[in-house]
Amino acid sequence: MSSGSSKMNTPAHWPPGISYLSSPSYTLSVPPHILTEIRGSKPSLHTPPCNLVSIRRITAPNHPAAGQYGLFANRTIPPHSHICDYLGEVHCDDRNSDYDLSLLRTRDGTNVGVDANRKGNEARFVNDYRSIQAKPNAIFKEGRTTSGELRISIWSGASKLRKGEEILVSYGKSWWKARHADVSEEATQSRTPE
Ligand SMILES: C[S@@+](CC[C@H](N)C(=O)[O-])C[C@H]1O[C@@H](n2cnc3c(N)ncnc32)[C@H](O)[C@@H]1O
């Protein structure tokens, strides 16, 4: 299936082993009629690396994702501005991935997700605001590109983002609920004798 994947022009701190995408990667789990609903009839547009943001390692010891990476504004970003698209593998199969966002629920009840675990772009490094700031300064928003393709993107919120500020969204209560359920299940399994 088509995707813009390249080793060229990867942003600084891009991790080895993760494919850098410049357009969504559609997996075979997406049936043709859903592919048409999402992408339309035109080929995907190629999105160049985003010069508004940087991927940075988080060194502050009190940050809940210390030692991991986050997404930071490279310059002042005005309110209500498109920052970057969230690119990844578009799929209809079940995934257990911390990088999986819901893109669409079709009329026949199929869930379509975008999973940036193995393939993605800068957007996969955006952290959730919880335990970092009182509220998010950015949001996930769905929209169509000029070619008609449905994508999720990161937009700034009601206030401008300052240069150097960490970009923080809300993953949503369901994301955290699923994560806590996974953690409890792992703990139960590790306590259960074989
Ligand atoms: C989509 S990734 C974000 C990028 C990630 N920090 C990285 O370096 O790859 C989601 C993961 O980031 C971490 N994370 C993001 N926001 C967090 C928060 N507010 N508190 C704790 N961990 C967070 C969790 O480990 C979560 O599974």
UniProtKB/TrEMBL annotation:
Coiled coil: none annotated. This is SET domain-containing protein. It comes from Sphaerobolus stellatus (strain SS14). Pfam families: SET. Gene3D superfamilies: SET domain. It comes from the Eukaryota. InterPro entries: SET_dom, SET_dom_sf. Residues 51-172 form the SET domain.
